Amino acid sequence: MKRTMTNITMVIKLLQSSIHRFLVLLLVPIILAGCSSKISDYPLNQPKFDMQTFFNGKLRAYGLVQNRSGKVIRRFHVDLLGKWQNNHGILEEVFYYDDGETQQRTWSLTKQADGRYVGSASDVIGKAVGQSQGFAFNWQYTLTINVDNEPWDIHLNDWLYQLDDSRLINRTQMSKWGFNVGEVTLIIEKEN
């Protein structure tokens, strides 16, 4: 009987430990999301970001991709061309990766009446939705990317910070099921 009670006590402690680990894993992404910055943090920062002005004409970007532990796993540059007619824009992107791969994406962008932007592209699931405040722009969307020749739907939290009239820094946090899987950092410059 004493041995059975000891076994039951061990099973209960193991279950409690497993439940605690599960709750921690469940709550950490929620807590971290609550600590992230908000677009409303930047109302007075200058220069004021305007997507239609900045992403108009030829641009060039230089960037890198880091895995979840911070190791750089890819480097690349991008040629961009933006065209606008009223509140509708097209942004063409051609990516040149350090391993020789090239990739193209064409964004269809629309400025909404409330100042928000909606975007779509062939590898974006649904719509990208975002807004600007001061020198910052934030939008979020789900992008399908290939990981080891398998399509993964990755959530992107995309932040653009305008430095001056011709440069901005773009930082993108990538996650899957609420867990960080990597980050992309870009410097984007307008070409004269």
Commentary on this structure:
This protein is of the alpha+beta class and 192 residues long. The protein has two domains: 1-35; 41-190, Calycin beta-barrel core domain (Lipocalin, Beta Barrel), CATH 2.40.128.20. Helix content is 20%, strand content 55%. The protein is built from two helices and ten strands. Strands 1-2-3-4-5-6-7-8-9-10 form a ten-stranded antiparallel β-barrel. A hairpin with a 2-residue loop joins strand 9 (167-176) and strand 10. The chain is globular. The termini are far apart. The model is unreliable at 22-35 (pLDDT under 50).
The CATH superfamily of the largest domain is: Calycin beta-barrel core domain
Mean pLDDT: 85
Q: Kindly name the structural category.
A: alpha+beta
Biggest sheet, strands in spatial order?
Answer: 1-2-3-4-5-6-7-8-9-10
Mind telling me the C-alpha Rg? Answer: 22 Å
Percent strand equals over 45%
Order of helices and strands: HHEEEEEEEEEE
Task: Indicate the CATH architecture of the largest domain.
Answer: Beta Barrel
The biggest beta sheet, please? 10 strands, antiparallel, barrel
Number of domain units? 2
How much helical structure, as a percent, in the residues?
10-25%
- List the total number of helices: 2
Q: Outline the low-pLDDT stretches.
A: 22-35
- Name of the level-1 CATH class of the largest domain: Mainly Beta
The name CATH uses for the topology of the largest domain is Lipocalin
> End-to-end span in angstroms?
84 Å
Shape: globular
* Assembly classification: single chain
Beta strand count: 10
